[in-house]
Amino acid sequence: MSERQQPWVAEPEQRGRILVLTDNPIARSIAVIASTVGRPVLVESADDGGPGLDPQEGDAVVLCDHDAPDAPSVLRSALASDAVYVAMMASRRRAEGLVEELVGEGYDVSRLHVPAGHDLGGRAPGEIALSVVAEIVAESYGRPGGPMSG
């Protein structure tokens, strides 16, 4: 008799950290969900980006508070780094001016996800966090996300 094949791997490939700016309910939910899928998470509670946000190759950076005083400079730092995913919680309209400014300064915004996450329709912190972590996982595997059927 042959062994049953499982649709999962016991030892997932190690991925970069998920770095989150500003401790709020969405950030805490990202930490819980991301740790469940085996991603190390650093939530920086200091609005100025603090000492902890130093994106390395393979990291994902998520700004959960576009109104944080240092959000623009943290975003610039993330886009200049080797982070594989950079996202900001903001509507397209609200982020439009900042994105135009970044482009004008010569930043490559092709990795910038605004608004962060997949369009799942959820509005609660955990639902928003789920959409963000799903997008990070999909990006890390080079997938667009979306239904597997169809």
TrEMBL record:
Location of the XdhC Rossmann domain: 20-136
Signal peptide positions on this chain: none
InterPro entries: MoCofactor_Util/Proc, XdhC_Rossmann_dom
PANTHER family: ALDEHYDE OXIDOREDUCTASE MOLYBDENUM COFACTOR ASSEMBLY PROTEIN, XANTHINE DEHYDROGENASE SUBUNIT A-RELATED
Protein name: XdhC Rossmann domain-containing protein
Organism of origin: Nocardioides oleivorans
Taxonomic placement: Bacteria, Bacillati, Actinomycetota, Actinomycetes, Propionibacteriales
